[in-house]
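Hey,
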Amino acid sequence: MHKKIVDLNTQIQQARMLFDEGRVVPSQLVRDEVLRSWLRCRQHGVSPTEQVLREAARFDQISHVRNQYQRLLTYAEPEMQRLFRSMSSAGWVLACVEREGHSIKYFGNDSPCYEVLGAALNAGIDLSEEIAGTNAPGCALIEGRPSVVCGREHFLHSLWDLSCVAVPIFDPAGTLVGALNASKPYDGRPVGIVESVALATRAVENRMVDDLRGAFVLALHYRPELTQSPVRGLIHFGEDGEVLGANPSARQMLDLDALKQKQSHVCFKDVFSCRVAEIEGLQQNPVEVECHNGARLFLKVESLRKGPLSVKSMPPQKRPDIAQSFYVGKPTQSLFDKAHRAFQFGVPVLVTGETGTGKEVLARSLHANGPSSKGAFIAVNCSAIPAGLIESELFGYADGAFTGARRGGAKGKFEEASGGTLFLDEIGDMPVEFQARLLRVLQERTVTRLGEEKPRPVSFSLVCATHRNLDELMESGDFRSDLYYRINGLRVQLPALREREDLDALIDHLLASMSQEDSPSILTSEARNLLRRHSWRGNIRELQQALNLGQALSTQGIIDVEHLPEDIKAQNDTAEVDVGEGGTLASAEREAVRCVLEKHNHNVSAAARELGITRATLYRKIKHFGL
C-alpha cells in the first residue's frame, strides 16, 4: 500500500511538472477532473504561489456573507453538526460554501497543526477556482458533482498539505446553491468519506424539500424498503397538484428536468399514472406505480397537512410528445427514421454530438417507440460515477459484499434496465478497466453482482452517447475497439446548432411547442437576427432557455432584444460602432480590457475590480476579443 501511495504522489508531481512547463500531460498521470481544473486555473490567471487564503476575511465580509445565505445555513448547520460529531475525532473539519464559493460556516479544530485549514475555510474566505485554484469545493461547484482533491492535486502550493472532499447542494428547483466540504491534513492515504459527506448533503436537500409550503410530500424509490432511507427521492406537491420541488434523487428517478423542458407546469397527473386519492393513507406501506418515463417506483406519503388529499383541477395543458422539442429537418429526417427502424429490431444505436444537441432526447424517443417501451428507461452518465463506485453502481452487489452494504444486496443499473432501455451517456469517459466488463455483459447478456459467483440474465435495448471523438480515443488506447464495434450498430451524428441551416425553422418549432395557446410568441426581426449571430455553445439546450426567458419577459407575445439573455444581448453592445477617426467602439473597448489585464499580469479578479465589472463578464469579453 505504501509503495502504491508513493507511486501515485510521484505521478501527480510528474503531471504538475509537465503542466507547468506547458507540455502535454498523459491521462494516466492525473485524473481528468484535476487536469480540467488546472487548465481553468491557468485561464483565470491564478498564480500557484498566491497566499490569498492566508488573508483573514474582514468582519463586515463575514457578516454580509452569512446574512445573505442565512436560509442555506438554516438547513445545512444541523447536518454539519451531526457530521462533525462523527468525523472530528478522525481529524476532519467541515465547511459550507455558497454557490459563488465563499465559505459561510466552518466547524474546525483549534489545534496548531490545523492553522492552514482554519485560514482556508473560515467564514468569508473565497474558495472559488478563480481565487483559490483547484480545490474540492471549487471543483464541485464548477462541475456540479462530488469532488476529491488531495495533496499536490491542489493548484496552490499553500494547499498541498490538505485533503478535501466536497459534494454540491441543489435546492428543490434543481439549482446549485452551494456545497459541503470536509478537509484534513494530507497524509498520503486515499480518503474514504465521500459517501458520508454525500449523505449529509442529501439530508440538507431533504430539509429544503420538506420546508416548502405545499399540501403533501411523497417519498419514492425503486425498492419499497428504501422509501424510508436517506437515499429516497422526495417530491413536494401544492394544493393544485403542481410540483413545487424535489430533491436530486427524485429529479433523477422521475426525469423531472426533461419533463420541465416540455411544459412550464408539471402536475401530479403528468408524473404518475395513479390518481392522488389512490395514495392517501400510504404513510406506512409503499405502493408501486408507473411513472411518465416508464419507470416503476414505490411511493409512500412522507408528510401530509391535516385533512384529506385533494387536488384542484388545473387548466388543460398542451402535452408535447417526447420528441416535440427535437426538430428534425429534411437533411437528417432519413437518418432518424433509419435509427428508429434499426432500434426497433434490436440494433444498438450510438449517438454523437456536442453537449446540448439533443442526444438524450433522441435516446428517449428511441425508447418510447422501441421494442422495450414498456420497460424502464435507465440513464447512466459514465463520466459522473466516481471510479470507486462504478462497479457497484453498474453491476450491483450481494448481501455482505462490503462493509456498509445493504441487507439483501442491491441491483445495479444493468439489472434495473432489464426489460427496458439502457442509455449509457458519455460512454467515451468510461474508465478503460471497466470497458472490458461492459463488453462481456453485452456479449453474454448476463451480469454478476459484487460478492456473487452466479451470473444473472439481463436483456435490454442499448443506446450510447458521447461528445468525444471515439476514433481518436481508440487510437490513443483510451477506448476499446471491440467495445466500439459492439455499441456502434448504427451511428447518428447530431449537428451542432451553428452548423444547422434550419435555425429559423427550429426557433419557430420551439416557440410553437412552448406555447400553451394557439398563437405562439413572435420574435422581432432584431431579436431573430441576434439569435442567428449567436455562437450557441450550449446548442439546443441554450436556445430553449433563451426562448423560455424571452417568452417569460415578453409582453403581448412579442419577444424583443431586451427580453433575451444578457450574453446574447452583449453581441449587440459590442457591435462595430464608428467613433470617428480613432476607429470603433469595439476596438476601443478591446484595447481598454487588454491594458487593464496587462497591468494586473492577467489576474482576472483584479482586472475585473478595476473595470467595475464581474469576473464572468470579463471572461466573456476576453473570449469575445480573443485576449
